[in-house]
Specification:
Radius of gyration: 48 Å
Number of helices: 27
Strand content: 5-15%
Structural class: alpha+beta
Family: Belongs to the polycystin family.
Shape: elongated
Domain EF-hand: 598-633
Number of domains: 6
Oligomer: single chain
Helix content: 55-70%
Largest sheet: 7 strands, antiparallel
Transmembrane segments: 98-123, 340-363, 383-404, 436-455, 475-497, 533-558
Number of strands: 11
Region (Disordered): 36-57, 675-719, 797-838
Biased composition (Acidic residues): 698-707
């Protein structure tokens, strides 16, 4: 008897339970193939019902709790959630973290690349070529080849002023006043250039007693303690500031790291003018009055240019150091920076990305606080967590400097506009802007490295980190040995060749020179020229011990560990493969579509074949009988029938059947569209998708070929294949299972043999006892003495047989309970004999 409802109300309720589309999907049936069946769904449904009932009874407290859980879920990570036991949660959390982090990475890359461009390089090259490689007309020297005080004055009164002041066009036509002040006609000179020198006072060093009568004054190398702060020269000339010392605070300067020393931002300074002739007059005056003297140790030339076409500043500093040995050593810095950040539409897009970046920093900051609160000190044991902290700290510093830079540049430009003939000091600001770019570049680098944290679920991606982590202790021990030998060679090279070879002139240069030798970049001829005996010996020893021994030891440690890691990974299953996850999701969608297709095919065939009496009226019994044979439950059959039985007479007339056919065709078209969309997103070359589409369109023919009788196409599901790695793991498991089963079978055989032996012994005992009883009951005139002897003989034979049967297991296992039992039996028999004799 069917479980159909008996009234219209019950039928409507049944339809509502099974959905309003008439043809209900069964996603749970498909999900159970991948997610562990109905157990998890039942647990989830139970928890959902419990949550709803609790919410109805708990009131506002549970409402706030649910809000708190929702807020906390925003910062859900693998470290804050219990993902070790829930594979599905682990997959979803990892993908969620990865997607959010990719967005963060895109934002930080947009910011980083929005601050720089290839134009910066060309701007720097143009300015450096102009001031470093332009030769003077007297001896053809350039700033790069500057070696003396005379060379400096030739450069300053020639290429320097010619490069700073462009007052004529390329055809020697004089420029208008508003056209002047542009270098290469495009780069505006901001303010006026500045000259500044740093001096040491006389008698700053100790003269040997033998030379005191010949050498009256002594000027040591520069240091802060011996810096000369006294006025000198033409101090009565108040028109020039070059003769009076000014502190670093008064000048608003900062220290500078030169080739020989680190110099303060103080000194004796002189600003030039905004035109060429006035600036030449100042330089001629300083030259005539010997502004550079024996105590001068460094001379700075600072100026700033701005190109409005590309919105870039180029802050230039030319430095000439005058060592205590005499001569001059030039150096320079050209910092091309973007101090005015927001001008074009692209700049404002970068500004929007910077705002998003700040939100990301806040988001990740809260996330790290939650993780630290949960894991305490164990949080800092992970390298990835330390990397997160570094990225956040660097990012916060960069955001703070970005705000400071914007405010400071605005103030400096306002001051410069008030007095165009004032020196524009952008040196310190450009220095920190460069450090800002370096910091954000490091943060971007670390952010890219952090991607390995989110792709660590793949065995191939973890080979590098696993190899380095496993050989870390060996590498640490090797590094100690390497650095001892390397520093020993560095000191030896510095002491042997430091006075003659430039690459070994300082300990730092010697250190990096030896690294270059390891990489094959060396000049053996210089070492041989410096010392024809020790030079080749030093080179051969270094190459042998460091290159052939230590470097190969390092590679051996890495290779050996890598082989171990690769072997271990070949024998273990992935924690989870992201590709398999997406494949599984794709297969899941295909199975759902196939399930819909099979159901539509079954209903179409039922409409054609269920009308047994051919009266064009399909009653419920005919409908139920046909679908029952196709594997449908009574509830599904009743729901589909009640959907189209409008009049409730339990019969589908022709109109109702046509309406069902029309709905089936609509659902078929929608299903075809879903197939097309899934094929567009799926992998190319997959035969399963096309076969699914063809089988749906030609359902009638295919169903006949698939099976005979009334077998439903629902039961003809395709199964997904397994990967090679899964097949290998399963093969190993089968091998182990076969071995275990073989061992179990052998043990069962041994038990059966023992049971058979026990059964035989039981039969023999029964036979012996029968003989004993027969000898007792027989009364053939035998004397009691004879009967007693026969009984003793039978008992003795039985005991000997028992001893022979138990000798083998006793020899293997030692004494057993049966042994003691036989002894007790023998003792009892002897006692019986003695009593009978008595």
């Amino acid at each position: 008897m069917s479980n159909r409802p008996g009234s219209a109300q019950s039928r409507n309720a049944w339809v509502n339970d099974y959905g309003n589309d008439g043809i209900r999907d069964e996603p749970d049936l498909v999900d159970s193939q991948y997610m562990g069946g109905n157990k998890n769904r039942n647990a989830a449904n139970t928890s959902t019902v419990a949550t709803k009932s609790t919410a109805r009874g708990g009131g506002g407290g549970n409402c706030f709790a649910s809000i708190g859980r929702g807020i906390r879920s925003i910062w859900a990570t693998r470290q804050t959630e219990e993902t070790t036991t829930n594979r599905e949660l682990y997959v979803k959390t990892t993908l969620r973290e990865l997607i959010i982090y990719i967005v963060f990475l895109i934002v930080i890359c947009v910011i980083t690349f929005g601050m720089t461009s290839t134009t910066m390089y060309y701007f720097t090259k143009v300015m450096s070529d102009l001031f470093l490689d332009t030769a003077n007309t007297e001896n053809g020297g350039t700033f790069r080849t500057l070696t003396s005080v005379e060379d400096f004055w030739r450069f300053s009164r020639g290429p320097l002023v010619d490069g700073l002041y462009w007052e004529k066009w390329y055809n020697n036509a004089t420029m208008n006043p508003d056209e002047m002040g542009y270098i290469y006609y495009e780069n505006k000179l901001l303010g006026v250039p500045r000259l500044r020198q740093i001096r040491v006072h006389s008698n700053s060093c100790q003269v040997h007693d033998d030379f005191e009568n010949f050498i009256n004054v002594c000027f040591d190398s520069y240091s802060d303690s011996i810096e000369d702060t006294e006025p000198f020269g033409e101090i009565q000339d108040t028109e020039y500031t070059a003769w009076r010392y000014q502190s670093e605070k008064a000048l608003g300067g900062s220290s500078h790291w030169g080739l020989l020393n680190t110099y303060s931002g103080a000194g004796n300074m002189q600003d030039l003018q905004s035109n060429k002739s006035a600036s030449l007059d100042i330089l001629d005056y300083l030259y005539d009055k010997l502004w550079i003297r024996r105590g001068t140790r460094a001379l700075f030339m600072d100026f700033t240019v701005y190109n409005a076409n590309i919105n870039l500043f180029c802050v230039v500093r030319l430095l000439v150091e005058f060592p205590a040995t005499g001569g001059a050593i030039p150096s320079w810095t050209f910092r091309t920076v973007k101090l005015i950040r927001y001008v074009t539409i692209g700049d404002y897009f970068v500004l929007a990305c910077e705002a998003i970046f700040c939100l990301f920093i806040l988001y990740y900051g809260v996330e790290e606080i939650i993780e630290i609160k949960k894991h305490r000190f164990s949080y800092f044991k992970s390298v990835w967590n330390i990397l997160d902290i570094l990225v956040i700290i660097i990012s916060v510093v960069c955001v703070a400097f970005n705000v400071y830079r914007t405010v400071e540049v605005g103030d400096k430009l306002q001051d410069l506009l008030k007095d165009p003939n004032k020196f524009a000091d952008f040196e310190a600001l450009s220095y920190w802007e460069t450090r800002f770019c370096n910091a954000i570049a490091i943060a971007t680098f670390l952010a890219w490295i952090k991607i390995f944290k989110y792709i660590s679920f793949n065995k191939t991606m973890t080979q590098l980190s696993s190899t380095l982590g496993r050989c870390a202790k060996d590498l640490a021990g090797f590094f100690v040995m390497f650095i001892i030998i390397f520093l020993a060679f560095t000191q030896l090279g510095y002491l042997l060749f430091g006075s003659q070879v430039k690459d070994f002139s300082t300990f730092q240069n010697a250190f990096f020179t030896l690294f270059r030798i390891i990489l094959g970049d060396f000049d053996f001829h210089q070492l041989e020229t410096a010392n024809r005996i020790l030079g080749p010996i030093f080179f051969m020893l270094f190459v042998f011990f460091v290159f052939f021994v230590l470097i190969n030891m390092f590679l051996a440690i890495i290779n050996d560990t890598y082989s171990e890691v690769k072997s271990d990974m070949a024998n273990q299953k992935n924690e989870f493969e992201i590709a398999d996850y997406f494949k599984k999701g794709y297969a899941k969608m295909m199975d759902k579509l196939n399930f819909k297709r099979d159901k539509i095919v079954d209903i179409q065939k039922a409409l054609q074949s269920a009308d047994i009496n051919n009266d064009k009226q399909l009653d419920f019994d005919e409908w139920r009988q046909d679908l029952k044979t196709r594997g449908y439950a009574d509830g599904e059959i009743e729901a589909m029938f009640a959907r189209y039985d409008v009049d409730g007479d339990r019969v589908l007339d022709e109109e109702e059947q046509r309406r069902m056919q029309a709905d089936l065709f609509e659902q078929k078209a929608a299903l075809n569209k879903e197939y097309d969309e899934l094929e567009g997103k799926g992998r190319p070359g997959t035969g399963r998708r096309s076969s699914s589409r063809v089988s749906f369109d030609e359902s009638g023919e295919e169903s006949d070929d698939e099976g005979s009788g009334t077998k439903s196409s629902r039961t003809g599901r395709t199964t997904n294949g397994v990967s090679y790695e899964e097949f290998t793991v399963l093969s190993r498991r089968v091998d182990r299972m076969e071995h275990s089963i073989g061992s179990i079978v052998s043990k069962i055989d041994a038990v059966l043999v023992k049971l058979e032996a026990m059964e035989k012994a039981k039969l023999k005992r029964r036979e012996t006892m029968g003989k004993i009883l027969d000898s007792i009951t027989e009364s053939d005139g035998t004397s009691d003495e004879m009967k007693r002897e026969q009984m003793e003989k039978l008992v003795r034979e039985e005991l000997e047989r028992w001893d022979s049967e138990t000798s083998v297991p006793q020899s293997a296992r030692g004494a057993s309970p049966s042994d003691s039992g036989s002894k007790n039996v023998r003792a009892r028999s002897q006692n019986g004999n003695q009593s009978s004799e008595a």
